[in-house]
Amino acid sequence: MSNTNAADRYWVDAQPYRSLDPGLRALHYGDGLFETLRVEGHSIAYLDRHLQRLRAGCERLQLDFDDWHGLEAELLACAAG
Fold this sequence. Notes:
The chain has 81 residues and is an alpha+beta fold. It has three helices and four strands; from the N terminus they run ββαββαα.
């Protein structure tokens, strides 16, 4: 993912979206996870802890995701504006 801006509020299958399609399977069956992040002064509070919880959640739900460095970079870019 590149050229992401603050208006892209959701990520589904590694793609940014500004709104969610109510027909998404994850919204109906709950087979997904999310974190709410607080941004202060262009930085994300407790980012390491958020990423640890996301990793643990992916393992528990058996969701295949391995681009943790890419996710962190995207989050930091969004926070920076």
